[in-house]
Amino acid sequence: MHSLDAQSHPSEPVAFISDVHGNYAALSAVLAELDARSINRIFCAGDVAGYYPKVNECCDELRERGVTTVMGNHDWYLGGSGACQRSKSANACIDYQRTVISDSNRLWLRALPITIDEPAFRLVHGGWEDPIDEYLEPNAEYFDQLSGKLFISGHTHVARISNFAGKTYCNPGSVGQPRDGDPRASFAQLRDGQLSLHRVEYDIDAVAGQMEAAGFDEHFFGGLYTGARQLQRRQ
């Protein structure tokens, strides 16, 4: 739990999510937890698309709830015609999602903003040097160059909160593909000036079955069982 300055947080509770990646089972579990906490204001730090099969369901849910969302690199790939330069596996998943995504959801992804600057915080997917595809390694010097008090980004799939000389950085971790050794879906909560990280269990077997039905073997989903840093077969 991290305390923020009274002038640096919204009056109503806020949740931050990121890196849903087509994992509707995980997203549903997180949203159910937010409903139980009476949190209606939700911000998503990008990557609704990529990796897992239920991209339409994830887009539809976020759109219906009015979740404010920035564009992630996988959203950019799927919304346009880009490709990941780092991973053939990621591209195979995007290629599959291109065959199933609805036109309205593709256009929604394509129109997502790159950055969001609220009075209380600043939000991007990657970082403030490259909002879409920067793997941010937060430090005091980095944030000294930026105006603001609270900074939120995703992309690394590793949940963390760090303080740097009066500035706070939060990565809410990943809803759909955690990579910090904890397979539970992750989100961050800001309530009454207290910023905290939380985890939620969900039905990983259901996602594995959906991937197999879509033609993907365990290489593409095995890491969900361990919270592995990379896609891999579970041990």
Features:
235 residues, alpha/beta, Purple Acid Phosphatase, chain A, domain 2, 5-stranded mixed beta sheet, globular
- For the record, give the distance between the C-alpha atoms at the N and C termini, rounded to a whole number: 33 Å
Model regions low in confidence, pLDDT < 50 over at least 5 residues: none
CATH-defined architecture: 4-Layer Sandwich
Structural class by sheet pairing and helices: alpha/beta
Number of helices: 7
Task: Give a topology summary.
Blueprint: E1 2-3, E2 14-17, H1 24-36, E3 41-44, H2 55-65, E4 68-69, H3 73-79, H4 88-100, H5 103-110, E5 116-117, E6 122-123, H6 140-144, E7 150-152, E8 160-164, E9 167-171, E10 185-191, E11 194-200, H7 204-213
Parallel strand pairs: 2-3, 3-4, 6-7, 7-9
Antiparallel strand pairs: 1-11, 2-10, 5-6, 8-9, 10-11
Helix pairs in contact: 3-5
